[in-house]
Amino acid sequence: MYLSSEEERALEGEYGEAIATSYRVLLSLGEYLGADRLIPIKSAHISGVNYANIGEEGLRFVEKLSEEAKVSVKTTLNPCGIELDNPSSLNPPSQFVERQRKIIDSYLKMGVSPTLTCVPYEYDNKPRRGSHIAWAESSASIYANSVLGAMTNRESAISSLAAAVTGKTPNAGMHLAENRKPGLVVSVSSDAIPMTTAEFGLLGLFAGKLTQKPIGFTGIGKPDRYQMKALGAGIGTSGSSPMFIALDSKPNGIEEVPYTIHEKKEMKDANTLSSEPQMVLLGCPFYTFSEVKKLAKIVSSKKVTKRFYLHLSRSVYEMAEGENIIHRLEASGIKVLKDVCPSLTPIGSWNGMDKAITDSAKGSYYMRTALKYKVGVLDLETIIKQYTQ
Ligand code: F3S
After folding, report:
1. CA 10 to CA 12: how far, in whole Å?
2. What structural domains and CATH numbers belong to the chain?
3. Does the CB atom of residue 343 touch ligand 1 within 6 A?
4. Mutate which of 51, 284, 288 to test ligand 1's pocket (most atoms within 8 Å of Cβ)?
5. What is the pTM (predicted TM-score) of this model?
6. 140-153: per-residue pLDDT in tens?
7. Does 79 sit in the ligand 1 pocket, CB within 6 Å?
8. pLDDT tens track for 220-260
């Protein structure tokens, strides 16, 4: 991969070890991807924030890097494992709180915005169509490629940080127009059309494991942006495809995989909870403001009958607070949380619970595999019907 003389000097350590490390990361990634050079990016979004996820090793890496490094482009941050302003709200062990704070402090020291959100594209970090960005968090990068028309590879925690520090990314993969075409088409039959956001998530979970290339869908019409958010999150969970495209018809010469009532039923059955849940978790990916408004409307003045958590970014929380929505949801018994990822943070084990209902296929997958919960996926309307009175 070609490096300019300036980049060569950075790689050799002329601007410090943190910048040299970042260039080494990008150089090996770029060579692996077959990039010809590095290109400038408009923004970065960093994952690798939750102590429950990155542990001691991640903490040490971020702390070390923060001794020297500063980000050079707008950089936002994924959710973590505590509410920063109210760290004991979910009963985490004190050691967890202390470690989590150190991770956040390290990112702040580097100049990262403490957005703590997995939906940065809603308010905090809105990329323009055609702009090159380097985003980790699969649901966000797939949404940026597929819905917003920005260009990003599915970055890892380390490569997104290296991109944030240098302001560059390898010119390969989704940064090249020729790679942004479907490599496979999932044809959804008329009896299997997803009707709810939860069902779009399950379709994504089914499709994501089929290919590493962009996925075309026929038969899904024009999903709204919340359905597309769920579809992308599902795709990002079960595989490494970076993008999806809703198509009117299948292009010639591309492999086609059917999604019929049979596959739809299999996905639903695999995501059904056969016993009574102890908690309801909403917000994976975090709810947007419109989704919060919709929830408040459906809940109305009913009271929840289970422990009920809603996960938001601080920016959406503030907007909802400004319209008195947080107060209304809390009056119904819903605990509204900022900053915390529900699917990788062991909220259940901190509070003696392991059976959950969610409206998210992605959430269901991670709660089952990473947190060892028993989990079921239901659509929001059904959740409210079943777990409120
Ligand atoms: Fe967000 Fe955590 Fe889900 S980061 S997408 S709530 S797994």
Report:
1. 5
2. 5-177 (3.30.499), 181-269 (no CATH), 272-386 (3.30.499.10)
3. yes
4. 284
5. 0.97
6. 999 999 999 999 99
7. yes
8. 999 999 999 999 999 999 999 999 999 999 999 999 999 99
